[in-house]
Amino acid sequence: MKSIAALFLILLANNWIVAQEPASTAWQPNTVFAGADGKFEAPPDTAMIQFNISAQENTSRAAFDHASKDAEQVRQILRSNGMEPKSAEIGYFSIQPVYDYNNAKRKLVAYQVTATVTLKLKEFTKIAPILQQLADGKVTDNQSVNYTLEDIDAAKAKAVEDGYRHARESASVVARASGRTLGDMTSASVDTLGNIQPIRPMMAMSRMSAQAAPMAGPTEEFSAQRITVSAHVSVVFALK
After folding, report:
1. Assign residue 3 a region: left if phi > 0, alpha if psi is -120 to 50, beta otherwise?
2. 102 and 35 share a domain?
3. Residues 148/197, Cβ–Cβ less than 8 Å
4. Rounded to 10 degrees, what is the CA torsion of 197, 203, 207, 213?
5. Smaller CB count within 10 Å for the chain: N or C?
6. Each residue's pLDDT tens digit, 206-222
7. The CATH number of the domain where 175 resides is what?
């Protein structure tokens, strides 16, 4: 029985070793394999404005009412820019007590209401006015803008096309060097590597008085960083 068990373990180990060998051992003769990375750069199609609504008062009811009043002002800003308030998404909301820890025994001093809001925009011309109005209204904190690409599938397809073109060019070089010609593709695999989501600084939001001289914002006349989508394409071609 021990000898049979030992033989079984040896066969199992051999099968595992074979399974770990690269797939290249199964390639057919008269073929050539080529792998290449492709990429496609696309301008962002979506801007994500993120900000906080925060209020602190002596009671939870007062803090809630204060935050509600600030949120209503945000809704009015959105409506004035031709946007529905429901287009803004709440990612986090809390009502928390605030304590004074200076004494040995903590003391409840206030309540704070905090909500994080995300607003997606397709019309980039609305970004600066909305941010400026949010800043001037003094009802939000930590405004930021993140540019991203939501229509990622079309960009991935372009990256795959670029990778295939490079792979075919490499395979053609090998075929010519060996005195052969490149035939049809027999198999292929694709691995999209994802995308880079750039972050761009927020637009001009300084609370300058009406009498102050106009000043260009820190990102004015600059373009948003392009988003790079990558793909790796592996192709097997027949050789003639």
Report:
1. alpha
2. no
3. yes
4. 160
5. N
6. 333 334 445 555 556 66
7. 3.30.110.170
